[in-house]
Amino acid sequence: MKFNSLLRHLLSNFYPFKFFYQKLNNQFVRDVFVAQELKKIKKNSLILDAGCGSQRYKGNCSHLRYKSQDFGEYATDLKKSIDTSYQDLDAYAYGSQIDYIGNIWDIKAKDNTFDAVLCTEVLEHIPYPIDTIKELSRILKKNGILILTAPSNCLRHMDPYFFYTGFTDRFYEKILGENNFSIKKMEPVGDYYSWMSVEVARTAISNSILAKLILFPTFLYYAMKRKTPVSVNSLCMGYHIVAIKN
């Protein structure tokens, strides 16, 4: 464990290791995407952080009127997964007041309340993702902005609140369209090759030093592969979406 901790520190702090670390961790690109889109929202707009968890992006909403929603019941994983701690996931904590406590598919807010809704990495943790999108449409004003991210392929996490491994671009096109949204932007995150590099790295980090040495050339092979339209269409890690309520 001490070696793995040292390896993670090396990966996350020293270039060129840092380059590969950030390449492995979707959180970096997600943070940039969310921060940029939040900055574009008009000052003093009313925004709901739906499924806010630890309220990671509250600090990016200082120019907005920020409200939060979560069910507030997750504590720790019941079914464990292969080590994912190198991803530096936020601690899931409720250090701040939650404005709307309850199910995301049944938010106690009036129709057409919010100018914007932020929903990041939530859909895989709820049993009714389609009902949730319908609910987010209900509480948004006309021309309201939905900033949405979710995986298209992921391992078990936050069990027992883990219901889907991900959603495709076709899911968003159909379900957002059926619920009065127009997609303004939909960006795939990663591709087949980057996914393979992540999984090889995950396997190496969670195993012996010998495994790390054996798998390192395979990791480099996938990490250095160039992204293509076919590799993205085959498999990506998730989608970043901006949609407007019609």
From TrEMBL:
Question: By its UniProt entry, which Pfam families does this protein fall under?
Answer: Methyltransf_11
UniProt GO molecular function: S-adenosylmethionine-dependent methyltransferase activity
Annotated Methyltransferase type domain residues = 48-148
Name-wise, this protein is Putative Methyltransferase type 11
Q: Does the keyword Transferase apply?
A: yes
A GO BP term here is: methylation
Q: Which domain of life is it from?
A: Bacteria
Q: Which InterPro entries match?
A: Methyltransf_11, SAM-dependent_MTases_sf
Which key words tag this protein in UniProt? Methyltransferase, Transferase
